[in-house]
Amino acid sequence: MNGTVALIGFGEAGRTFAGAGHWGASAKAHDLLIGEAEMDAAIAQAGVAPCATLADALDGAPLVLSLVTADQAPLVAQEAAKLIAPGTLYCDMNSVAPQTKQEAARAIEAAGAHYVDVAVMAPVNPARLSVPLLLAGERAEQARTLLEALGFANTRIVGGEVGRASAIKMIRSVMVKGMEALTAECMLAAQQAGVLDEVLSSLDASEKPRPWEERADYNLDRMMIHGQRRAAEMEEVVKTLEGLGTGAAMTRGTVQRQRAIGALGLKQPETGLAGKIEQVNRKGGMQTA
What we know:
The chain is of the alpha/beta class. The chain has two domains: 5-163, Rossmann fold (3-Layer(aba) Sandwich); 168-288, Orthogonal Bundle (N-(1-d-carboxylethyl)-l-norvaline Dehydrogenase, domain 2). Helix content is 56%, strand content 12%. It has an eight-stranded mixed beta sheet, sandwiched between helices. Helix 4 runs parallel beside helix 5 (98-110).
């Protein structure tokens, strides 16, 4: 790629991308840990230019990739807005809420630069530059061209509104990270109760692979019809887990959600997932669930 790409944050993602793409001298990096041995060694190994300040990193860089921790993302954008040159393309690749990205976009755009919402949709390792990237924003097409020039091989534009890519990732995480948390809550309790093998066997026997739309349609159907009864059952599950001392945070949330959906009184669900969602929304399910 002609010109320079500035990496703000040189943790796992920055190091992985720079190394996989052999960016070397075409890239420069700024990180708060520059000056510490481990960080300096990583930057030297990648062959990118270290920048002690954010100003140095942004200077002359037509493309910026923000790859910091979620709590630092809005702060970095605000600071970058004070220093960034007009016309610079600022790709925010951090895992933050759509509202957070929209706030950051306002600061960057006010400085005359261009903000693009980029969602990294899988772990950067082992995918590296093949990791799926979703792009959103008015300059998403321009960003896609530059990212592909850097070697990114799996990019897709999902809209012109900043926050859309982030919304897809954040809402998907409800299921992905929620399943992880549920898994931990279930397995820790099963082991403590001495029934781990039986629980795993039961789950294997009941699991039937199906598309997520079909699974979601079925799950919502059950909650609409049987939510109240299931909430009562899950209260007993809470007692079980608390008695074992392994914790029931996720299960308590299940009680609340089941009871709220069941309390809507929708005993005759519409056909299809979209119809059921509309039914729940009409009844105020978004406010009560």
